[in-house]
Amino acid sequence: MTIFVCVDDNNGMLFNRRRQSRDEAVLEDMVRTAGQKIWMNEYSSKLFQTVPEKIIVEEDFLACAGRDGCCFLENIPLKPYEDKLESVVVYYWNRVYPADTYLDIDLSQNWKVEDTKEFGGTSHEKITRKIFRRKDR
Predict the structure, then answer these.
(1) Long-range contacts of range 49-53, CB-CB < 8 Å, 24 or more positions apart?
(2) Total number of domains constituting the chain
(3) Phi, psi of 117 (to 5 degrees)
(4) What sections of 47-127 are H helices per DSSP?
(5) Which of 57, 63, 103, 111 is deepest in the core (most CB within 10 A)?
(6) What are phi and psi of 81, to 5 degrees?
(7) Domain range for residue 16?
(8) Domain holding 60: CATH number?
(9) Is residue 90 a contact partner of residue 132, using CB atoms and an 8 Å limit?
(10) Sheet holding 12-15, edge to edge
(11) pLDDT tens for each residue of 10-68
C-alpha cells in the first residue's frame, strides 16, 4: 500500500481537527504520482472536488484499499496499518504550523528515501515531496 500525507516540519498534520494547509499543486502531483484512483475518507474528499473520478471515498479506506492501493491520509492514525505499507509519499510544507495531530510512524527507522522533488505550489513557494520505501522489502 502507498500512503500520501502532508506534514509540516514537525510532522504535524492537523490543528483543532482542521488541516494545516492545502495546495492545488500538491493535489495535482499526488494524482499524477499515484497513477490510479486514490482512496480517502469523506473529510479528505472535499479537496478533490475537481477530480472526483480520481478518488474512492470510504470511511475505512485503509482497510479497503488493498496491498496495491494508494491512500491519502489526513486525520486518522497510520500506525495500526504500518505493516501493510510499501511506500509513504510525504509532502513537506517546509514550515511549522500549530498542530495537535501528527504523523504517527517514524520514517527514520526502517525506511529509505527513494526520491526527492522540490516544486513551487499555489500556496507555498517551496514544497518538498519525498518518497519513502521500506528497507526490509
Answers:
(1) 51/27
(2) 1
(3) -140, 135
(4) 61-64
(5) 103
(6) -110, 5
(7) 2-134
(8) 3.40.430.10
(9) yes
(10) 18-19, 12-15, 101-102
(11) 999 999 989 999 999 999 999 999 999 999 999 999 999 999 999 999 999 999 999 99
